[in-house]
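Researcher: Re-running this chain for the archive, since the previous output was lost when a drive failed. Same request as before.
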Amino acid sequence: MAGSVWRVRDELWEAVEPLLPECPPDPRGGRPRVDDRVCFNAIVFVLFTGIAWRHLPAELGCSPATAHRRLAAWQAAGVWERLHRELLRRLNAAGRIDWSTAVVDGSHIRALLGGSTPVLRRLTVPALAPSII
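Model: Regenerated structure tokens:
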């Protein structure tokens, strides 16, 4: 593994490593694949710092294109969703999550009967009028 100036903790890597898909070496040969941990470090660095992919420091041992490609491949393989569940499970088991308060964000869920559209106003206003009188 290439030496890195920035690394995620070993505990996080131990949770991530079993979730990553196997990637056997290409039988055609070619350049060796960048180590998964080096790529994971680079991905987390970009996500943590908010820098643009093109500004990823070369000292991390992974090119911006490789890190971004690996991020997309792991997303398609469901790695991030499984990692999220595993980290929640571990934090909950350790008593590190306060479940007494929560925030529900419905911004990604379609409101089937919500909103004030002209069609809904026509449908609901006459239905309410008799009960008002």
